[in-house]
Design a protein that fits this description.
The protein is mainly alpha-helical. It has 11 helices and no strands.
């Protein structure tokens, strides 16, 4: 009644299908789809290919899962090159929150690390540079408030006008060094590293209190996610 067995197929009638995805991307995609398998292990290098495959085959839940993975692991991303990768992934696959989180770290990165990470290839590179310039200007203004604000630069803690010119020159030299370093690394970590604490404690009344206020304002600003263009 029923014919058993597979019908023979002429090899000439078979069409060869060439897949554009790499074997790694397809393996990760299949592991994600298969409910019997644990979710695949990811890293930033394989994510673009995996997301492209998910987009091609319309696996909508894949994007949400990858987004959650990057979000959960972003704090562990140490190198600036990895942050650049996150910005690129967020740009290509429309993850704006991830872009902003990665930019937040790149804004305060040392210039040397930005160069090593090849950040200039980013579509958002010009925007990143504007954000860094704005941050440098903010720090310069805050430093100026401490130096020239609450008390005159030459006014000692006991409110006398006895001027130690050598100390004043030394402070100005260190201050110039500080401003130069901030231009390269606009972060509170850089400011704290180069701030001439002992000299300013002796030379500017209330400098410790002013620095603590600056620290709170700087860390609060550095935790805020930057806007996108």
């Amino acid at each position: 009644m029923f014919a058993l067995g597979a019908a023979s197929v002429d090899r000439e009638e078979c069409q060869e299908v060439t897949l554009q995805e790499s074997s790694t991307s397809l393996d990760l995609l299949l592991r994600f789809i298969d409910p019997k398998k644990a979710n695949p292990k990811l890293n930033l290098d394989v994510i673009p290919g995996l997301l492209e495959a998910g987009r091609k085959y319309q696996i909508d839940t894949l994007g949400d899962w990858v987004h959650s993975w990057i979000y959960g692991n972003l704090s562990a991303v140490g190198s600036k090159s990895q942050m650049v990768q996150v910005v690129e992934i967020g740009t290509v696959f429309e993850f704006p929150h991830l872009r902003r989180m990665a930019l937040c770290g790149l804004i305060r990165a040392p210039s040397s690390e930005l160069m090593e990470s090849n950040a200039s290839r980013l579509r958002l590179y010009d925007h990143l540079m504007r954000l860094r310039t704005r941050r440098v200007e903010w720090f310069r203004e805050e430093i100026s408030k401490i130096v020239h604000g609450g008390a005159p630069i030459r006014l000692l803690k006991d409110h006398t006008f006895i001027i130690n010119d050598l100390k004043y020159v030394e402070i100005m030299q260190i201050l110039m060094k500080l401003v130069f370093e901030i231009a390269s690394e606009p972060s509170f970590a850089c400011l704290a590293r180069y701030w001439p604490k002992q000299l300013y404690n002796d030379y500017i009344h209330g400098s410790e209190e002013k620095m603590e206020l600056l620290k709170q304002a700087a860390l609060r600003m550095e935790s805020e996610l930057p806007e996108l263009p």
